[in-house]
Design brief:
Shape: globular
Number of domains: 2
Helix content: over 70%
CATH topology of the largest domain: Growth Hormone, Chain: A
Order of helices and strands: HHHHHHHHHHHHHH
Oligomer: single chain
CATH architecture of the largest domain: Up-down Bundle
Length: about 375
Amino acid sequence: MQTLAQGWLVFRLTNSAQALGILSALRFGPSLFGLPFAGVLTDYLPRRRLLVATQSAGILQAGLLAFLTLTGEVRVWHVFVLAFVQGLIDTVDMPARQSFQGELVPVSDLQSAVSLNSTVFNAGRLVGPALAGLVVAEAGEGWCFALNAASFVPFLFAVISVEERAPATVGRLAVIPQLVEGLRFAWEEARVRRLLLSVLVTAVFGISHSTLLPVLAGVVLGSDARGYGLLLAASGFGAMVGSLAVAAVGRRQGLVFCSQLLLGLSLGVLALSKSLPLASLSLVVAGLSVAAQLATTNGYIQTNSPDHLRARLISLYIWVFSGGAPLGGLVAGFLAQHWGVPTAIAFAAFLCVVAALLQLVPGRDVKSPR
């Protein structure tokens, strides 16, 4: 809700597309540059304490933005500064929250916990923007920010109620050596390395079609904004189904291979689609495949990494995905401009199939430390 309201508020204040780009850079820039270091910090400090700090800071950030907007005192530089603060908070919060799941459930249930968390995230992506649109239209952006501030409170109390554990990493904090230790583990363990490279391909090419959906809907399929909305909803619905499926069945041998292969095939169908129903169906399958791949990869890394490295490896996983997605949007736009939308999507489909086949290359798997 806050993301949509921030964008709408900035555009209303400036009527500038460039300002929206600046907002996005300020919001996601800290994660792009800081996530690997945040992973080191999360392994060194108690995760519960970090989450209490990030959730409390989130309340203050969203509450201040709500106050400024509701009182009519908000200026675009206020939104920019607070978006950057939100980016800093999220940079620490994401690896802390993800790795904290390992302290809440036994390792046998961790894959299901990760998948259910992914389901909730995808549900928020579906419901949040729609709800924010209604709130902005009826009451203004300030109430979206106020609701976001209030939403931190239940989670904050839930975290406080959990018993604190000692930090996973003992000894003196040495950021660079400990960062290198995590990177070395990720590279030397063949299975982890292949999974992260597979996620990179999905981030850069597998989800890049989302950038092209407005053009696909309007030019290729001859539809309008309603058709674009249907394509977005189809992808989101598939993502929820994929996350729930992994939560139900758990991690299975070859699931990442099957998911990425299915993603490539569904994008191939999307590239050939000339009708809205077929394109929507292919996006349901694509969304399902991406969610299943990411949930399985996240669960594997969490259950098969040493406890003192878990947050570093999770932050690396988040960094690969979140850093690859903007790059994929730029690449998709460039290819679509020169090759056309269907060819650009077909090229992405081909690379996803190749990445899936590389998962079959033999390599030494990580042995669970637990």
